[in-house]
Structures are given as C-alpha cells and as structure tokens.
Amino acid sequence: MLHRTVRCLAALTLLAGAGCASTFADPTGRLTALENAQRRYTQLVRWGEIRRASVYVEPDMLEEFLSYEQFFEKIRITDTEAEEVTLASEDTASVDVTYHAYSLATFQEKQILETQKWTRYDGVKNTWLVRPEIAEFVGAFQVSAN
Fold first, then answer.
1. Which helix (DSSP H) or strand (DSSP E) does residue 44 occupy?
2. In-domain check, residue 13
3. pTM score
4. Beta strand segments in the chain, E
5. What CATH number corresponds to the domain at position 88?
6. Closest by alpha carbon to 57, among 24, 67, 47?
7. DSSP collapsed to 3 states, 50-78
8. What pLDDT shows up at residue 116?
9. Is residue 54 part of a domain?
10. Is residue 69 part of a domain?
11. d(CA 118, CA 131)
12. What is the pLDDT of residue 4?
C-alpha cells in the first residue's frame, strides 16, 4: 500500500511540474505568437500569396517586398523546412528557412536559404514582423523581379 501511495504521489508531482513548466515557460505567449506568424508567413510565400504575406513584413520593407510579386509568379516553391526559432531577446528572433523551388521558365530547381529576422512590435499584443531576404530568391534564379 505504501509503495502505491508513493508512486501515485510521484506521478502527481511529475504531472504538476510538467503543467507548471509548460504554463510558465512562455507566460506572455510571445514564442507561440512568433511561431504562428512565422509559419503563416512562410506558407503564404510558399503558395505565392505575396500580398497576403505582406501583413507580416516590416513597414519599411513593404514596398520592396511587394515589388517582387511578379517574380514569385515565375517560380514555384514545392517545400519548406524551418529550423528552430532562435530568440535573441524578448523582442527579436531569427529562423532559418530552406525553400525548395523551381523556375517555371527553365524548370531549374534550387534550394534557397532565408534567415528570417523577426521583431516584436507591440509587446503585449505579440505582433511579430519579418525582414525578408527576397534577394536570396532572385539571386538563386537570376531572374529579374520586374
């Protein structure tokens, strides 16, 4: 009986500890918000939805980002692989993303590595915006963006 009681208490302690760890590891939800924004942005870029992806782009890069819309009509991204998020501070992070893409003109396939640099802008609301490295895509295919 004593062994069963000890085992039950040990199990409850582990469960309670795990619950606390997951609850307090990211109490503001910033990492969850970042992972969601990063995943959504990357998916939209993958499907060529540049206008929709632009809501995740930093305002000072928005015009340049949208200028590549025609370029993204000339390629197809077939897959993406994102590494773990690296938090540099409470408000900055980076994620290495590998895109597998090909040119519709030449069927040339390339792997493009983009280091997405994310910044949290409004603190409590956890709005994360990215500074995309679109030049990596253009350089990989040597295709004019216009």
1. helix 30-46
2. no
3. 0.77
4. 75-82, 86-87, 92-103, 109-120, 128-131
5. 3.10.450.50
6. 67
7. HHHHHHHECHHHHHHHHCCHHHHCCEEEE
8. 96
9. yes
10. yes
11. 6
12. 52
Phi, psi of 31 (to 5 degrees): -70, -40
Identify which of 145, 34, 44, 123 has the alpha carbon closest to the alpha carbon of residue 86. Answer: 34
DSSP state of 33: H
134 against 52, higher pLDDT: 52
Least confident of 8-12, 23-27, 98-102, 113-117: 8-12
* Residue 78 is assigned to a structural domain of this protein: yes
- Domain count along the chain: 1
| Domain coverage including residue 32 | 28-141
Average pLDDT over residues 109-118: 94
Residues 6+ apart with CB under 8 A from 92: 117, 118, 119, 120
In this model, does residue 37 exceed pLDDT 90? Answer: yes
